[in-house]
Amino acid sequence: MPIVRIKPDFFNNDAQTNFNANTHANPGLEIEEIAFSNRNILIEGIRGTGKTHILKMVRESCFEKFEVHRVLPVYLSLAKLSEYEILEDSKFRAHLYTNIVQSAISTIINNFSFIEKAGDPLHLKVLKTDAPILEAFIDRPIVEVLDEIKALFEMLNSELLSDDVKVVKDQSNNLGAEVAAKWFKLKGESIKKEHIEQIVNTLSHFNASRYIVNFFNGLNDILELNYTLLLLDEISGTSDKAQIEVFRLLRLIRASTETTTGTNFIYFIGGVYPPEKTNYPAKIKGHDFDFIQGEDCSMEYLEMDVLHDEYESFFRYITEKRINILHPESSGQTSWIFEDDRTFLLAAFTANGLPRRYFEILNNAYSIASKKFASETDIKRLDYSSVSTAIQNIADSQTLSDNQLTELDLHYLEKIIIPKLSARNSGAETRNESRDEDKRLPVHMFLSVSRGDRKKLGNLIYRGIIHNLSRTRKSKSLSPDSGEQKGILLMLDLAVAFYYRVFNVQKSVDYFQNDLRENAKNGYLYYSTITLIDPDQGPIQQSFDF
Question: Which InterPro entries does the entry mention (predicted)?
């Protein structure tokens, strides 16, 4: 066996539907604190920061503590809406809200043992209510009702993509009538035709969000919940049209769901990308309402700053926890996988706060090392060279993927940012050869830009090539006024810097652990001011700062 055998599950991530709550590590967000905080929250982070993992951990926590808090978690990934985004607005709304209701129903059915308060659930009936959808099922057993609504909505979603359904102004031939006719043909009169028409047509109405909120109010009364917690994943991954409708619902939840006790009957936690890739509604952009971060919800930034004091311990912990669960023979030690700690640190730092990228680097390195050590007789572990090559591969094929970057993106990166930082760091390294240790110039990857230039870098920020330091989870040891006099402070991604050789890569770990962190603790004394010149604006004039 030339290299230590690692199970494929070790390299999985939650976005691949391989969620494992047992491997959770706290990235600075206390799960129970946000699950039961009675707050509306957006969790922001680029791809791979762990948004899906956090939302699923909140769901798990709600069920584990259901008897105490009676909070119903309803998780929905909006990525499943993609094929419906081409529909005209009323059909799309119908699909969005049927999916939200379906997720709530599936959650209840699959977890009824947690939810029922006492007695036989088959005898728990829909009480007299004016809650939308539920009002059509008065005095029927709740489980039977939920099964029937689920079947109706499955039929509706199927019909929405059918060429046979035509939504016209004629009231006798609308979407509700089409679905009601098909239901009667297949299911009989278990639900009255007029009730089906009312349900379907209201779901597609411009004010459908209010209809759905009232549905959850009725559900809370029937199941005696404290509140429902709507967990919406991949909000920013949908079309601009879809995002506007989602934010319409979230704003309504924030503004109009208070009960007589002063709390709400529904709250939300959503996963979003940075503002550069999230279509927040604003009246100045022509929308009919505003959704304002910090006012309509609290913000939690998930990306861990590589300058955080606990950065290494976080990645060591998620590694050891996975190893211990999948390979008990490892005794949960990183040394069971890596040939030395320097190799582990290289992989952890070039992940740049992204757990998904970290495991992708390890997966790629494992493939490289397996081939390299195929003829060896002694057991080998992941080595520095294999991890270095894996970083190059991941940066080239994923982070810097050609089909995700524009020519202008590459111009800003390769003609302005990389040359500026490379020249500065090369100059610093040369000067340091003749300086005492206490007088040496630190290597850095920090950029100061104007607000206008930050907008130009929007796609590079979204792709994780540039990181906005104001939207990461900071260490308490950092200077409280760090960067305040420097304008908007960004940082070049460490894997990208490694790929372009912005510094002497043989000293990577030393620079990551010492130079960058000490600079941050001292208030970012060393940084490079960048001005983005477009290709048609003439030659680029570089200045060098130390």
Answer: P-loop_NTPase
